[in-house]
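Let us practice reading a record.
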Amino acid sequence: MLRNTTTTKTTSRESIDTVDTVTDAVADDPEKKRENVRNANPNGFSRTEPGVNIKAAEADFAELGRQLTGISQASRKLSRTQSKQSSRKGKTPSDDIEKAAESSDQTSDYEPFDLESTLRGNQAAEIESGMRPKHIGVIWDGLTVTGMGGVTNFVKVFPDAFISFFNVVETAMNIFGLGKKGKDVNILKDFRGVIKPGEMVLVLGRPGSGCTTFLKVIANQRFGYTGVHGDVQYGPFDATTFANQYRGEAVYNQEDDIHHPTLTVGQTLGFALDTMTPGKRPHGMTKAEFKDKVITTLLRMFNIEHTRNTIVGNPFVRGVSGGERKRVSIAEMMVTSGTVCSWDNSTRGLDASTALDYVKSLRVMTNIYKCTTFVSLYQASESIYKQFDKVLVIDSGRQVYFGPTEDARAYFESLGFKEKPRQTTPDYLTGCTDEFERDYAEGRSPDNAPHSPETLAQAFLNSRLSNLLDEETAAYRKTLSENRQVQENFQIAVADSKRKGASKKSVYRIPYYLQIWALMQRQFLIKWQDKFTLVVDWITSIVIAIVLGTVWLKLPVTSAGAFTRGGLLFISLLFNAFQAFAELASTMLGRPIVNKHKAYTFHRPSALWLAQICVDMCFSAVQIMVFSIMVYFMCGLALSAGGFFTFYIVIVSGYLAMTLFFRTVGCLCPDFDYAIKFAATIITLFVLTSGYLIQYQSQQVWLRWIFYINALGLGFAALMENEFGRLSLTCTDESLVPSGPGYTSIANQVCTLPGSVTGSLQVDGGAYITQGFEYKPSELWRNFGIIIVLIVGFLFTNATLGEWLIYGEGGNAAKVFQKSNKEREELNKALVAKRTQRRASKNEAEGSAININSKAVLTWEGLNYDVPTPAGQLRLLDNVYGYVKPGELTALMGASGAGKTTLLDVLASRKNIGVITGDVLVDGIPKGTAFQRGTSYAEQLDVHEPTATVREALRFSADLRQPFDVPQSEKYAYVEEVLSLLEMEDMADAIIGDPETGLAVEQRKRVTIGVELAAKPELLLFLDEPTSGLDSQSAFNIVRFLKKLANAGQAILCTIHQPNAALFENFDRLLLLQRGGQTVYFGDIGKDACVLIDYLKRHGAECPPDANPAEYMLDAIGAGQAPRVGDRDWADIFAESPELANIKDKIQQLKAERLAEVGSQPKIDEREFATPLIHQLKVVQKRTNASFWRSPNYAFTRLFNHVIIALLTGLTFLNLGDDRTSLQYRVFVIFQVTVLPALILAQVEPKYAFARMIYYREASSKMYGQFAFASSLVVAEMPYSILCAVGFFLPLYYMPRFQMGSSRAGYQFLMILVTELFSVTLGQMIAAITPTPFISALINPFVIITFALFCGVTIPKPQIPKFWRAWLYQLDPFTRLIGGMVATELHDRPVICTSGELQRFEAPIGQTCGEYMAPYFERMGPGYLINNATNACEYCAYKVGDQFYSALSISFDNRWRELGILIAFTGSNLVILFLASRFLNFNKR
């Protein structure tokens, strides 16, 4: 084992022991395991030793190096190395990071074995220094990047979707990504600089200034930009050469952590190592030992060893914490052993001490690997800043400084910018680029100092530092040209790192077959560990198999079982083929990970598709085998081993072909909407041309070719040939004409089954399918062969497209605005005028417009909060005391996991699970029903209606939350005040959008705060991390604004992360929590935090004069990874302190004062909502309608799918005649209406679920009730549903020439419209009773298949087994649909058989046909004779349509009853929807 260089305190060791004990108990279930460990260790997995100790991490590396060296080199060499190392080791002070870096430089003179070399797989080249180093610096000169922009985009509405769709050229260009979305603008202009191996650069700039673009381009990721000009050199190589030969050496780590959520941390890193481990390892080490050693070292280095067997998770799957996930991303990128590394704003959401640990980790990586590191950070503290060697400051795409970190501050001061007291260097540097934040020194002003991005960039060009940069660049270029050794070392190192079999020209380390093998192992784990999906898949498959097996139980080998056998084979194939539909979503959602791994050169995208299909094959083969056994033997299909296995392999190959087809579509389409449109079109064609609904010989000639590229059709043909080629069917009475008493001679009867021979009761199965379907049993293996060719073809296209097509945008997405009108233009002018005036006067007295007249005081005493866990109750808040009163700004702070958000949730009455004890009182009285309405709570997640504009969102809040009697004009005037105060003048009409494509993080945060302020809270304002994810400037503006509000009389409680000293001093009072929800301090902060510092000092924690008190206090109480100061628990100190006693007295005093004032006044309004229901309905409906109107893709995709399916069906069954076959086809056209739910559910459910998420947030503020929410969605769907019904009805009804009478056509349209509305309400109902759209999507196949199976088409009512017929047939809404529509269409329709459809038989000697058939017709036998007078009878099976459908137990007289029942089903959906939205709350908090 590796030696652990850090000492572990007992508590931590005990918690780890607990982990071990628990692990054995629940080794199987990782989720349980994690829960139990969490409960056994309520303080979380926090270690008490320092989180990332640079010296310790380097020592770990050295230790691993020594161990590996011992295995691989001679002992003589080893002892010399160790003695040298120990002699140097004594000289390095371990507390100075920079010196530590230098010391590691010195020790590398003789380089003992180090992990860097191991990972890079050098073959221990015998050079004096040990290993070939792989060090590359970067030079960039004249770097300019252009992207799309410079145009105002207006929000697209529903009609725009038609215009752009019918504009064929634009549509084609969009599909192939050729369309320009604006003009070229410069994102970066004229950047230059140099960075040598082992240096770290901090990239600073305000959001949108171009930091992300710089980091991407410097890591050679140029996709998505319209142009990259200038020279970027990686050591001696230019950018193109570097990209083609050494792509994986320059890597970029994006802001978001993208991983497979169901893999554990160990498996995630293990996969990276599988693709990156060198072929030649130190002697005697197996690949497994090597992998284990490296993973252990990486995890120990970042202090996340305890997470090794925990799944990584994502926002929807619970896994490791955000900070831990970020460290997994670092470790994964370290495995790539890239030489140029870019990190994008990676401390988002981390508290101050974790953020510092993270940057120290990067320092470790840079020191050990000698790599070249670029990092952009928002809100960087002084201690973080000190870790860097150089800093790059960007202002609106211009480089305004690049040079040593220690010179930056002095440089900007020399330009004439004044520094503010207690401002950190990064804040000062960023502040200098903000024209409204910077201050000029005495005697300097915009007239004689830089004042714009251009002048700042010019000032830097003219400066001494610019000349030094030129000199440094020239010197580095000279070194490169003279020292060819560097280039040679790099090339040899890269070549040596490749495994045996990998091409010398390839950028990948391991050969293609090994990539596939590594991916197969990973895909197996992903599938196997996603137990929920796996179990649901199996349950679906088995339940459907049972249903099919019982419905078609023991099919008779007679003419009665011929058609139903075909139905069973078709549904068995179709069900399994469409199990693959989920691939479309997973392929498109998996793109970011594929792109990341391709950039890291872990594997080729095509290797993933090949590996995935192999793994899918293993899982689906077992599942389909179980399905096949159940269906095949329960239904009594042809009993022979050959028959069964042919049935099985045809279904498996059909499944594989469709899986690969959907993956190809997923690779081909730029977004979901294109994919869904494309898939719907092709699937409809596949189903229609498969030969079940309309036989091959009856299809339109120009559609028949599709059969040969249609896996469903070929599969169905193969299944039919396999089954019927082995059968001989017996003709029963129902199929004999004439039949009944008196007809006994087979010589004078005929079997109506295709393929029958006069005078015989036996029909050969092969003859039946040859005559009925044009399938020949001899073509079985030909058809199977074509399926195999299709599989190979799709696999090839899939792999090729995966390699060639990349989707992703570069640069910042342009904002989208609402088109302006006169009212909004005037409002915006007023806002801009106000801003100009305010800036001109630098006026701070803006609070004047806000008058808050609340006097209420919130107090809480002895507050505890317990939640149930599998191991019993877990206490999250422990005996917390405090108060908030008007006019004061109170900060709530603590480490991650200390219970800050929990306390806010409890105080704001947002919790609906767990037990709360203690008193939370308003003015000494318990909170009433109006409390939630009277308080505003800006939550951490910015959840907004994405289609609304900023102004609309604020007006919506004001309309519903300010009292109903306040005139609307007054409410809207207040909204303009809020827009002005939050400095949102430029974006008042911007569409909020979603986080990827809409407003930036910082702007969304302002909207969240604005929405809460627009409500004019009477009591309190709560804010949860209003500054998280913002840059320092925006954070400062928001806190300054909160201070203004407090001065105006508002009571505010606010949690805050990473505050700098300037921010911190805006707060009046502090409530500090430690892990376990215990209070460490509650009281005043004082000027320059003097009261707080004094309290800490009295108890042994002295804050250094240059430290930020907000950071120091967290370190002192042990909130970060550092040990706490002092030997007593700070919570115990506070519990016994006089401060707490004073607070308790103060609370009693406040309660008494307020009770005296309030007690005499009449009771205030205690209604739950501020406005009446009718007003809620009006306002919410207006917003929902606007949301649908502005989501053109949602409505248009649905309409497109309706029209295309109806069109294709109409074309397939074009101009049906009056013959007998057309009767069956008319029923199948009507059966196509049953695809509506399949189309609609998939779209309606996610829409409802997303709207519900927004409703949960708004309902917790008591904006509006659930009835307004649910009804608004139902009503908003109506216009689009009617449009879709019309678009579906016209082609479907008139192209096949259905009955033209208005009474018939009108009824049929009503039926289709009601079915459309039924499907929409069904989708909303399913979404309302399920917690996530994912689970809704798993319920859909059951619903759709059940509805289609039991409506009496695939198996007629008389043949449905009694058990199902008694209840499910009656309960199936489609029974009513089919009953009403078939009767209406076929009633009184005359049938005229074609010559081929006539049945021919001889009448007995001495009788004419008329005489012979008379008794048959008297008994109401169907059909008619062509000529009664002859004895060679020609008989047509039906005379009129009614005779065809009476066998299906359908009656024309019941058609209005059927419509009524279908409407009742729609009504029952609505009832369940409203009840579910009222009583089911999936928002557990």
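A brief commentary: The chain has 55 helices and 31 strands.
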